Amino acid sequence: MCGIVGLIDFSGITEEDKVLVRKGLLLLKHRGPDEEGIFRDHQAVLGHVRLSIIDLSSGRQPMEDEELCVIFNGEIYNFLDLRKELENLGHSFKTRSDTEVILKAYREWGENCVERLSGMFAFALWDARERKLLLARDRLGKKPLYYRLTNSRLVFASEIKALLADLPEKKIAPEALDCFFSFGFVPSPASIFSGIKKLPPAHLAVFSEKGLTLKRYWEVNFSPRAYSLDEALGEFLTLFEKAVSTRLISDVPLGAFLSGGIDSPLVVAQMSRLLDRPVLTNSIGFDDEAGSELPLAREIARFLGTDHREYLVKPEAAKILPKIIYHLDEPLADSSALPTYYVCQMARQNVTVALSGDGGDESFGGYTFRYLPHLFESRLRQKIPLPLRSTFFRLLGAVYPRASWLPRPLRLKTIFQNLAVSDARAFYQDLVWLPVDLREEVYTPQFKKELDGATPFEWVYPLYQKTREIDPVSRAQFVDLHFYLPEDVLVKVDRMSMAVALEVRSPLLDYQLVEFAGRLPLELKVRGNTGKIILREALKRFLPEGLISKPKRGFAVPEAEWLRGKLRPFMEEALDTRDSCLWQHLERKKVKALWQKHLSGRLNLGVFFWGLMIFRLWEKEFLL
Which pLDDT score, from 0 to 100, does residue 550 have? Predict the structure, then answer.
């Protein structure tokens, strides 16, 4: 794992440009505490900080090969296979690193080399002869890449903080802020700052004197085929063993995260079969063990014979929030960033690399609290004439009282509102944390004017419509894989792990496994009230039924409860402050009224208010 920062200017590199890159490296030092390097020529400055994982002695960056130079953040898991192929084509290697494989692959296949790479990566490759820069990001967006373009000049970095010195003015992008209030995150290609963008996952960008061009090189294809359970299970186990095995290549200590669910136990069980020593596992929980996964994780660890460590997170741990905000760069309302930071910190005390279970929910149908109601409502919509749905249920949805504290099946307002609209609109309404009607209520007239009619639905609709021919669960998964996963889950994991210089690898996000999941029929993903059918069947090969059937309790912080308790002063400081730009965008009185409803328990807007608290801490760090 590493941090990269660079600058290309076709009018020539100045001393100020070199200083900007050096300052950026200092801000990224947490991502790569082991080594630092800089490349310079007349039009490029490329900087790199390294967390040494593979080829500790000769894998230094920036890495040059005649007129080519690359800086790279991540891991290429199939680099040994690619190296053999390239050697057969006549290429010779000076190092054992995956970085050099990128250079030789580009020399052999040009820009299309990115399609051959399997891993997590963001890299910049400067071709001095062709006078062009290639930027690339992995298929699912595990590794970040921000950039700023002005005329003949492009500045880029692993984190947004390394680009802020290049911004003439720190101005919040209205549509990005709208997305944050609604989803809790800022999606690509936007960033929270006007003038800075994110390279989207599965994209490459080419910057030359002709300008900047972006190209998508991969997308999940959902095309269910007629698998039997045995056929699907056999194919999954083969792909999964390979995915775990390639992620065990490391020249430094390696371990894993372990929860009480399905995904990480599956990863740890496979690791236990492949390694000749006990796996070092790490689990996180809350001070209320009755609502924690620790007891179940402990049982699984005992059965698998792992070297197990645990950590308890308490509300007082929120004192670390300013540090977490600094490393997140952009506001992120996912409260599980807090325990993620602590489990990464705990793991880093013993290992440099940790395997995780990320990706199982999105690829294999784990979000049953959203997917199953969406499937039920979609089937119901098909049976009710559109005129009746759009009038009768719209009226019921408008007048029925909101009860977000109830379990989903009892939230009749939500069901009525969803039945009144299309599948795509209903999925969007389930995805947002700030309900659509409340959004209209709390936004200031000025903010609405700045948005000029734009809504967060415009980010979701094109993704949902891309897969119209398949079932509603697969359509929801497609959105999650291209939206929620890369913009929330993987942002959280990357920033929190890199904050403590820990590399996290996710076998279930191997792109071949994700493509396999896209071929699964609905009944091998969800059945009855249960999701991740194929993963559960696979786990039966490793664990007894009693450790699989127990209910998963989740990883997120109980933010609604904490905000009503020990974190209430944090929230009320945000609501009472006069210098916050929140009140340029939100109606203070209406937000305060919602806060009182939240405190009373009549509404559960925990994520929205957690997000407001996070935004206040973020603006203190980056704006004020």
Answer: 64
